Automatic annotation (TrEMBL):
Compositional bias of kind Basic residues: 1-12
The protein, known as: Leukotoxin LktA family filamentous adhesin
Keywords, comma-separated and alphabetical: Membrane, Transmembrane, Transmembrane helix
Cross-referenced NCBIfam families: adhes_FxxPxG
Chain segments annotated as transmembrane: 29-46
Span list, region Disordered: 1-22
The keyword Transmembrane helix appears for this protein: yes
Length: 436
């Protein structure tokens, strides 16, 4: 383990090898340093705005002043449940601006006992363009929850570091009921019971989420990455190794919070899953929920599960990686992939999982899908169109209720490729093992 990070002195050199000065470039850019790759977001410049983090009581009345002071907010749990393991904070607003740090401590005071889970409920939309650290025993650790009926936005300069992170946008009535106090909050997270998703709640991630053991995002609409080609791209990563000691107040030293060239041990990686859930039963066989993945990287040390009500779209600059298995499905809508999907083990993709109206439940691939050590299974309630590349190291199985058209490349390294079609089959490519 790397020891406690040291502060840079004026006589020391900065990252670019030049002597650090009071107004050096490092002060402007170091707080954009991300886990796993030292990727730098562009300096946006312009006027600096103060963040706004305000507590409320159980009745919604404000408590105290803005917790963000001089660019740093040190926040302890407002309540603790009877088990002493789960803490609760209630906020009206939670906004962390570019250049600011919010440290969420897993205890109710500077001398309190460590909590396992910290739940943060927010009445309004959560906005993060600075750095948010979940800190347990002076390290990045613990199960961090954000619950807001209005969802969350992480801007391109925003970074969340946590042991694990769960963000949920439930309907307001459910939010108030299940998270009324610390004990009900403890039951909600234990049973994963927070009611229906809010129609207004969206999760938009243009920045970066780094966790050791897992990411869980749940909203009717999930958008990862900007559609602008100039955007540096989002990242969601699990299996990140954090330093033993966290620097909580020096923006220049945030780089030392994360180790970037290692993975967690295998025993911890088993829990390094990424779960995205955008699924709401609207009745009549229709499910709402969309997932759009634009430019950026979703990188899981464990499994990846994408459970979406309607449509999934990934563009050519998107990459989804799983260190284990990957399961992607929609209830009634289509899946369109133009990016790269990679898993070490089995990849399962299903469109039209629900018996409802799935007439548009097609699968279209223009990108690359690869299972390096496992098989591949695709089930489309309607049709399949492959214009890209699909590779696996085990058995591959294609099932379509209507039509399969392949003009791309479908290859199984060590087994057969099977196609089961309801009506029509057309294999135009000469680079495929596909047969019916």
């Amino acid at each position: 383990m790397i020891g406690k990070p040291k502060r840079l002195k004026k006589s020391q050199k900065s990252l670019n090898g030049k002597t650090d000065k009071k107004n050096s470039l490092s002060r402007k850019v170091l707080h954009y340093v991300l886990a796993a790759g030292f990727v730098f977001a562009p300096w946006l410049g312009g006027e600096a705005y103060a963040g706004n983090i305000v507590r409320i009581d159980a009745n919604g009345a404000s408590i105290g002043d803005n917790l963000m002071q001089n660019g740093v907010a040190d926040i302890y749990a407002g309540e603790v449940d009877t088990s002493g393991k789960v803490g609760l904070n209630r906020f009206n607003t939670f906004t962390v601006e570019n250049g600011e740090i919010a440290n969420l401590y897993f205890k109710n005071s500077s001398t309190g006992s460590a909590l396992d889970t910290l739940v943060n409920t927010v009445e309004n939309q959560i906005n993060i363009s600075g750095i948010v650290n979940g800190i347990r025993n002076n390290t990045i650790d613990g199960n961090l929850y954000f619950i807001s009926p209005q969802g969350m936005v992480v801007g391109s300069t925003g970074v969340i570091n946590a042991g694990s992170l769960t963000v949920v946008a439930p309907e307001s009535d459910f939010w108030k009921y299940y998270f009324a106090n610390a004990d009900t909050s403890a039951n909600a997270v234990k049973n994963r019971n927070w009611g229906r998703l809010s129609d207004e709640g969206k999760i938009n991630i243009d920045g970066h989420i780094n966790t050791a053991t897992g990411i869980d995002l749940e909203a009717v609409s999930i958008n990862l990455g900007s559609t602008a080609s100039s955007s540096p791209g989002f990242s969601l990563k699990t299996g990140v190794v954090f330093n033993e000691t966290v620097n909580t107040d020096d923006i220049d030293q945030q780089i030392n919070n994360v180790l970037t060239n290692e993975r967690l041990t295998a025993s911890t990686d088993e829990n390094g899953n990424i779960y995205l859930y955008a699924r709401k039963d609207e009745g009549g066989g229709y499910y709402a929920g969309t997932l759009n993945i634009n430019n950026g990287l979703l990188d899981s040390a464990g499994n990846v599960r994408l459970e979406i009500g309607n449509t999934i779209t990934t563009n050519e600059d998107a990459s989804i990686k799983s260190g284990k298995e990957m399961n992607i499905f929609t209830e009634t809508g289509s899946i369109s992939n133009d990016g790269n999907i990679d898993a070490v083990q089995m990849i399962q993709i299903t469109t039209g999982n629900s018996p409802g109206d799935s007439s548009d439940a097609n699968f279209i691939n223009r990108g690359t899908i690869c299972s390096t050590d496992g098989g591949f299974s695709l089930t489309a309630r309607n049709s399949v169109l492959n214009l890209g590349t699909i590779k696996s190291n085990g058995e591959s199985k294609f099932t379509a209720g209507n039509t399969i058209i392949n003009t791309g490349e479908i290859i199984s390294e060590n087994s057969n490729v099977q196609a089961h079609i309801g009506r029509n089959f057309c294999n135009i490519s000469h680079k495929s093992d596909l047969w019916s």
